[in-house]
Amino acid sequence: MPESLEERVRGIAARLGFDGCRFAAAREARHGEALQRWLDAGEHGDMAWMEKAPERRKDPRLLVEGARTVIVLALNYCPPGAGGDRSSEIEVRGRFARYAWGEDYHLVIDKKLKAFARELAALGGEQRFYVDYGPVLERDFASDAGMGWNGKSTVQIHPELGTWFFLAELVTTLGLRPDRPMPDRCGKCTACIDCCPTGAITAPHHVDARRCISYLTIEHLGAIPEEFREAIGDRVFGCDDCLEVCPWNRFARASGEARFAAREFVAMPLREFLDLDETGFRELFRRSPVKRTGRERFLRNVCVALGNVGGAGDLPALQRVAEAEGELVAEHARWAIARIRGRGGAS
Ligand code: B12
Ligand code: SF4
Ligand code: SF4
Prior knowledge:
Blueprint: H1 5-15, E1 20-25, H2 32-40, H3 54-58, E2 69-76, E3 95-96, H4 105-122, E4 127-130, H5 138-145, E5 149-150, E6 156-157, E7 165-172, H6 191-195, E8 201-203, E9 206-207, H7 213-219, H8 226-232, E10 235-237, H9 241-244, H10 270-273, H11 278-284, H12 294-309, H13 315-324, H14 327-342
Parallel strand pairs: 3-10
Antiparallel strand pairs: 1-2, 2-7, 4-7, 5-6, 8-9
The protein binds cobalamin and iron/sulfur cluster (2 copies).
């Protein structure tokens, strides 16, 4: 039997190292109106880039003329020691979300998508590819294609990968038979909603980004509102709480992608980050997602974490930063000093 077009495309995905490849029809996104309401309510906070071209985000046919299929891809990023067995987690001093432990996934996946697009062109397709930054409501098309289901946390859940996978898409003119959606297997579970430290999951499948620690530590541009600082705890970049509690991570296995393995910075003592100058910051976070915040906002986050978990030994470094840095970092350093002193950290 000759190989079908669908099998050939899945074969390309497997050769490029993707952990899943499924197809959805290119059509209007099911939750386009929900996206519009979210934007109109300002729940995207400072992410002005989310406001750009919402009509394209709602309909992939506006991205590629004659588009017939959205090829939905999954790539496992579960770093070794982070899977279902939480007792073997690597001990970290300030917490980074797992997706940021290794090399920037945009770089890793972009390269694979370029190669993928070349192979699809050889099959007669015209396509564009996206990972994260593109105007695609990625989780809608993942749900349509049966790449897991949309969890109550809004994170897409896969029966074998759990929560630890990235999504990417190729919008193509090739007509590939759509896969079936997968039933929602959250059942009565509400663990992600119950555990969220800031109450950011305001309803099942709905996150108010302005309350989310991932947003506050990565995307938010100014001072972190005081009401959230304590809840941020020791997190300095992103948040995994609603992912870690998901029972479907019992089945998660470590990623085969060596570039997602944890880099040294995840185990660095928090205080040492305060010594980074611009060059030091750029070198430490070269090819890392952490680079996105820039040094100033990263130091802001480090000060908040030190205010929550630091001790007397951290006061001299915080004092130095409070005197030498611009107002954004200095104000967070002063807050941290007051918190540590309030705990009896030092006179
Ligand atoms: C903006 C953004 C954020 C924002 C806002 C998050 C949010 N929930 O909206 C912030 C900065 C907070 C964020 C955080 C994170 N993000 Co983010 N983010 C995005 C981005 C760029 C757009 C998301 C978006 O359009 N939001 C608008 C809202 C309205 O849409 P939505 O959250 O996708 O929600 C829709 C679905 O729930 C959908 N839906 C789909 N199927 C179904 C089924 C049912 C029944 C229902 C009711 C709804 C539904 O309907 C909703 C309304 O449209 C996407 C990439 C992309 N282009 O899609 C990555 C993306 C969602 N992020 C990702 C990741 C990894 C994260 C973090 C885990 C990172 C971290 N550890 O810190 C957290 C998770 C926090 C969380 N609970 O969502 C991955 C998620 C992969 C996955 N397996 O789901 C994505 C897909 C990037 C990628 N290419 O891999 N993110
Ligand atoms: S990433 Fe953290 S703060 Fe954001 S919704 Fe999940 S648990 Fe809440
Ligand atoms: S924690 Fe429970 S409710 Fe939340 S996504 Fe996982 S299974 Fe669904």
